[in-house]
Design a protein that fits this description.
The chain is an alpha+beta fold and about 375 residues long. Helices cover about 60% and strands about 10% of the residues. Strands 2-4-5-7-6 form a five-stranded mixed β-sheet. A two-stranded antiparallel sheet has the order 1-3. A hairpin with a 5-residue loop joins strand 6 and strand 7.
Length: about 375
């Protein structure tokens, strides 16, 4: 993989399996030379030597074409690999016309010899281990149909062909995953550096001004106190934004739940999260954030202007637990059911519906003058993926 430096322009990631394709090209050259040498040695015993040289000529032309195609990223296309497999099997089948029955029974190498293994390697480099193994198996099946008999040598060749395609495919898949992880690490590093730069700038400027406005407004009182409260809320929001971890995701589509929750912190809302990542499927993290946002919205609407809320995130391994508590007056008994009957579906759909969709559980503890506490539990196995 090559990453262009800043003076070369924007960062560009080369095809992570380019080295496998270069190996495929080298293999095609070496195996053709082997097939050519085999034809020279065996031609005197062939039933149709002229046809053998025609096939060798076609192999040479096709080798030139595939070498040019596989040497360019734009030429590494599925149809070319499939055509390579068809051509290899087709040329291999001409061995029935070229060789004598005695040569076929004596396990004399077919006209294509090991040149035919190229498509298995190319399929593995292009589409992974199963495609490589399947291509190797098809080449082995063609060899069996041409020979007409199952021998130890034939079984060995099939195992080697399928195994080679499988191993190259594994290397291809691993290289692609590693490239994605490296790209994510580079993006995260760049985002963290930019966040730290902005944090320094904000801390030296905006946050200090807001803190001064809040302090002076409280000293003056009256309408200035209201402005001081607004400045304080913005100060807390900015501090939360700066302190929040950068959003990260994995190759499998998982995301860290902490950053989205940390951004919900305000002067009245305190958010506590673990020091390590809490990775969940991205859709689950999004839905849980929406649930918490809806609960905090209810606190703002119904718990009173002075009410405060606390959000606690716990990672218990097999499950993730979210606790949302406020110090408001609590929810009167039967109030949720009556609100649902009146058509106000905030809790029923935005909260209960989302948690049910995730396959989680929702518990409510409340009472007059006791505040409200919701507990959401979502298991990592099952639910929406």
């Amino acid at each position: 993989m090559h990453i262009k430096s800043d003076d070369e322009g924007p960062s560009v990631l080369e095809d992570p399996v380019a080295h496998l394709w270069r190996g495929t090209v080298a293999l095609r050259v070496v195996t053709f030379l082997f097939a050519l040498g085999n034809a020279v040695i065996q031609s005197s015993g062939y039933a149709r030597p002229w046809l053998a040289w025609v096939v060798v000529g076609v192999m040479a032309a096709w080798s030139v074409f595939t070498i040019q195609a596989y040497s360019r990223e734009s030429g590494r296309l599925p149809w070319i690999v499939v055509a390579d497999l068809v051509v290899a099997c087709g040329l291999m089948a001409t061995s029935v016309l070229i060789m004598t029955p005695m040569q076929l029974l004596a396990n004399v190498p077919l006209i294509t010899t090991i040149w035919a293994c190229g498509p298995a390697v190319a399929a593995g480099a292009l589409a992974g281990r199963y495609a490589g193994a399947a291509a190797g198996g098809l080449i082995g099946l063609s060899t069996y149909l041409i020979r007409g008999a199952m021998t130890i040598d034939l079984v060995r060749d099939v195992v080697l062909l399928a195994g080679a395609g499988f191993v190259v495919g594994m290397a291809s898949s691993t290289a692609r995953r590693s490239a994605v992880r490296l790209a994510q690490a580079l993006r995260t590093e760049a985002a963290t550096a930019e966040r730290e730069r902005l944090a320094r700038s904000i801390h030296d400027g905006v946050l200090q001004v807001l803190a001064r406005v809040r302090k002076r407004g409280l000293e003056l009182g009256g309408e200035a106190a209201e402005l001081a409260e607004l400045a304080g809320e913005q100060e807390v929001a900015l501090r939360s934004l700066v302190a929040a971890s950068p959003v990260e995701s994995t190759v499998d589509g998982d995301a860290d739940l902490r950053p989205a929750l940390q951004l919900l912190a305000t002067q009245k809302v305190q958010v506590s999260t673990p020091g390590t990542q809490v990775m969940l499927p991205a859709v689950v993290a999004l839905e849980l954030t929406s649930v918490v946002r809806e609960m905090l919205s209810n606190v703002d609407k119904h718990a009173g202007v002075d009410a405060k809320a606390w959000v606690l995130l716990e990672d218990l391994g097999e499950e993730v637990v979210l606790s949302i508590r406020d110090d408001g007056p609590g929810i009167p008994e039967g109030r949720i059911d009556s609100a649902e009957a009146e058509g106000r579906m905030g809790i029923a759909k935005s909260i209960r519906g989302r948690v049910a969709l995730l396959g989680g559980t929702l518990e409510l503890q409340t009472g007059p003058g006791e505040g409200t506490e919701w507990e959401v539990r979502v298991f990592r196995v099952g639910g929406v993926r």
